[in-house]
User: What shape does this take?
Amino acid sequence: MLVRMQSGPAARGVSSTWSLWTFLLRDLVALAALTIGFAHGARAHSLDDVDAMLQSDERYFQQIDKPTPDFTLRAEDGRIVRLANLVGKVVVLHFIYTSCPDVCPLHAEKIAEIQKMVNSTPMKDQVVFTSITTDPSKDTPDVLKAYGPAHGLDPVNWLFLTTTQDQPENTTRKLAEAFGHKFTLTDDGYQMHGIVTHVIDKEGRWRANFHGMDFDPINLVTLVNALTNNVERPHHGQDEGWLAKLKNLL
Assistant: This one.
């Protein structure tokens, strides 16, 4: 049977709708696979397998395995938060400042996208998203409280950290340097800086960097899933698992 194909605006509308549904289906399949992986962590591949996959498939991924730079900072609600307080959860951490006119809000929205993916799975209670300001003199608690929700971040498992009242103003910029990048003050009050998303495991160990904003969010979520499941030891003799299925589906 011959089918007459539409042309013109109607056809383009059908094509756009089909592309949208294809994109949504891809994310739903990925999240389903991640949920299966979460529920069956004992059968998951080792963290080395996950790292190898990411090094092969994600050009912006950097494997790290060293202690996380320690910190004691103040949250947007005034409480003191130490790195030790976050042990037991996987931490997705980045540095921004709220008056940044370009890449910082885009970075926050990228993190919000990842948070939505994580929070739609059982990982929600095991992951905390942490934004650290490098401009504490301007980023008051009220400013911090408003920033996250304005860019799509859910306060349920998100922290915005700044300096304590007795810390020097450059404390968080020095912390950023300890994480491998700089926020350099310019004469016009802005800061020159790069974009890096850091991932810390449940034992408080620094495990990975995702550089820039062009990485695929599902790759970061895949690593977070492995870390929430405490996937460490290799399981030999398994040709197929949730990770391989996820890779094939995508």
The longest strand covers residues 61-67. Strands lie at 61-67, 72-75, 80-82, 90-96, 127-133, 158-162, 183-185, 191-193, 196-200, 205-211. The chain has one domain: 46-232.
